Amino acid sequence: MSTLATTQPRFTTGIYHGKLGMWVFLASEIMFFSGFFGAFIVLRNLNIEVFTASAHMLDKTVATINTAVLITSSLTMALAHLALERGEQSKFRLFLFITILCAFGFLGIKSYEYATKFGHHIYPWTNTFFATYFTMTGFHALHVIGGIIPMIWMLGKSLVKGYPQEMHHRVEVLGLYWHFVDLVWIFLFPTLYLIF
């Protein structure tokens, strides 16, 4: 059975199975992160002084740089999909490689931020704010790692024998996931760093 059959549009929705499945998965992820944001709002209102004081201990400059890195990765992911759709393997590899670099850069900067907090004896159990901060950013970081793994696989396959142009749908589906990861950070960034 050809793997191309999975890229045919569904009669009922006009969307192929992989893309529809990703949208359903992302809907569940929205509910997952909505729980975090809801808990954050409730806990913030119950501990406003602690949250305000603790939020001022976060490094807004580092977080802003990290935001720029992640937004750049979203752009390069879209460009990688476009390049593969057009059959431009070298551009596909270049943009996917840049996306992977940005993803690792994001994790590296986040690791630096965590290490700085630990160096100042700030841990998830320090107070309620940092419990929510480490939980929300930690789960987001796990989602970043979850996106890096298939990107590395696709890049490796492309380097060995070329990634099939007709499989650009898979890159599109991965792109949907990656844009969602970026979007979550766009909400996390002001919530944790800017509103206090």
Structural notes for this entry:
The radius of gyration is 19 Å and the shape is elongated. It has helices at 17-46, 48-55, 60-85, 89-119, 128-161, 168-194. It is built from six helices and no strands. The chain has one domain: Cytochrome c oxidase, subunit III, four-helix bundle (Four Helix Bundle (Hemerythrin (Met), subunit A), Up-down Bundle), CATH 1.20.120.80. With 196 residues, the chain is mainly α.
Highlighted features:
mainly alpha; Four Helix Bundle (Hemerythrin (Met), subunit A); elongated; disordered N terminus
| Distance linking N and C termini | 56 Å
Output the CATH topology: Four Helix Bundle (Hemerythrin (Met), subunit A)
> With helices defined by DSSP (H or I, 4 residues minimum), what is the helix count?
6
H and E string: HHHHHH
Helix content: over 70%
Q: Total number of β-strand segments?
A: 0
Structural class: mainly alpha
CATH superfamily: Cytochrome c oxidase, subunit III, four-helix bundle
